[in-house]
Amino acid sequence: MKLSGYWICCISILVLLFCSGFVLADEIQPTITHVFFEKDGMPFNESVHFTVDCYGYAWKMWDGSAPEDRIAKVNHSSELVYSYSASCPSYGCTIYEPYYHAGRLYVDRCDVKGQTAGFDFSIRNFSLSPIPTCTDLHQFMQGGGRNGGYYNGTPEFDDCVAETRSHRDRCDQYLVSCEPGNDNECETWIVDGKNVKKTPAYSACTDTVERERMDCDQFLKKIDPSTMLMWKDTDSSKEYPAQRACELRFAIPSATLAPPQDHQILNITYGIPATTTAHEISPVESLYCGILNLIGVSC
């Protein structure tokens, strides 16, 4: 296969990034988070703008297995490694932070700072992860496809797929025995203890089965998007089915000091830390993801 200068350039950059120790990025997981602020044990219905800052260490390897990562878990300088801001117009708002790369960090603590009418507040060490308590959502079985939209299976769909699997098994009759050392077309494919290879008849049979399998899609049930929990991509303004739903609760501490101009400063409180760890994407990782997307590979 002949590569153009463009692809050679892209591949060279990927190799450089890999050899430099940068890690593969993970996928964005569409996430909705329901946020609740309370004060003095009651729902706080005023508008709140807040920022979550998490401090710790950013792993060099995605799983924290690099030698320097193992050392850093015991001895490291705690730095800001993850941060996001959001605004809640009232009690029980929804935000669309995907927590991208939030599972790739060693976190010492997460703090939250908030501003609302008349006062600021801060809650120190409310969590050991920027990711709150979440539940995975399974809102659809297939997305996109030939007709677009999102679909769930039906008993008729399951029966149809099972039947096509049995048809595919019958295609094996068109395989022929071969000798790996004497036949360049002989693959490392063993059936009943013998090396076999494909034939034109086998390929024609499997193509027919694949068309039958695609015909099973007619039995899928299309989902009305209005019945789904949707996640909003703030960059593109497009909506996608959410893959997980989370809940984040904050108790605004009581005011202890009222300085001039009626601007109150609330004391810092300490929350119960969580038990998970988290990671933020670096500019180089972002470039790397963009290159992968150009060649059809998802980050």
Task: Write a concise synopsis of the structure shown.
The chain is of the alpha+beta class and about 300 residues long. Helix content is about 20%, strand content about 35%.
List keywords for this structure.
299 residues; alpha+beta; 2 domains; 5-stranded mixed beta sheet; 20 strands; 22% helix; disordered N terminus
Describe the fold and architecture.
The protein is of the alpha+beta class and 299 residues long. The chain folds into 2 domains: 23-139 and 228-294, no CATH class; 142-225, no CATH class. 22% of the residues lie in helices and 33% in strands. It is built from 5 helices and 20 strands. It has helices spanning 5-19, 67-72, 155-170, 200-215, 283-294; strands at residues 31-39, 42-43, 48-58, 79-88, 93-95, 105-116, 119-127, 133-136, 142-143, 150-152, 176-177, 190-191, 194-197, 221-222, 230-232, 239-241, 244-252, 255-257, 264-266, 269-270. Helix 1 packs antiparallel against helix 5. The longest helix is centred in the middle third of the chain and has 16 residues, at 155-170. The chain is elongated.
